[in-house]
Amino acid sequence: ALTVRFLTRRFIGEYGDMEFIYSHNLTVDGREILFHIWDVPNSQEQAEEGSSEEKRIQWADSFVLVYSICDRASFNILPLKIQFIKAAKEGQSQEKVPIVIVGNKRDLHHQRVVSSEEGRLLALSLDCGFYEVS
After folding, report:
1. Fewest Cβ atoms closer than 10 Å to its Cβ: which of 48, 63, 71, 104?
2. 6 lies in which domain range?
3. CA angle 51, 82, 130 (to 5 degrees)
């Protein structure tokens, strides 16, 4: 939903469990930037550290990991995913890999099970950026 919103400025409520690669041009500070976004839904059946996940990690230059503030399990999986990304990317170079954690569904505060503070503390402890969005 966040990817489609970023690309089209529209909200679509229903999504399948499919993975897509989107390309998008954006002008930032007078410079044209080409984004390639590999949008991968999290799936419980998906192997935690499978070869397809490693391929995606090697393909990417930066990462936005999204969890639902209404779903503790989607939050709890983040430390393992971030450690896996850092081991794969930072093990090859001395550069820090840009990672941002995003808590989604902020508008559903009445269903919140993960506090903003928990998200901020996790991001701080793992040296990541942090945002909450609707």
Report:
1. 48
2. 1-41
3. 140
